[in-house]
Amino acid sequence: MVTSCRRSDEVVDPNIETKPSTRALERELLTALRCVDADADKRPKMCQVLELLRLDEFTSWIARVGFASSVQ
């Protein structure tokens, strides 16, 4: 599997300017894999997918603006 073999960078377009963090990319890939699970009951609802992606967006935003370091 791409995420377990640490080959996740192979699925990212090399032409994009801002590369996602390894953590964000792994979370997005795992979310995508859950969406295509053979067992439909194990697939997340769209609202759950949106929550996961928003969480990732929020985490990325926090990292960009340096919120954690400015609070201390």
TrEMBL record:
Name this protein carries in UniProt: Receptor-like protein kinase
Membrane topology: Single-pass membrane protein
UniProt keyword annotation of Amino-acid biosynthesis present: no
Gene Ontology molecular functions: ATP binding; kinase activity
Lineage: Eukaryota, Viridiplantae, Streptophyta, Embryophyta, Tracheophyta
Subcellular location: Membrane
Transferase is among the record's keywords: yes
Source species, domain of life: Eukaryota
One GO term describing the cellular component: membrane
Keywords per UniProt: ATP-binding, Kinase, Membrane, Nucleotide-binding, Phosphoprotein, Receptor, Transferase, Transmembrane, Transmembrane helix
Classification via InterPro entries: RLK_Ser/Thr-Kinase (IPR052232)
Signal peptide, first to last residue: none
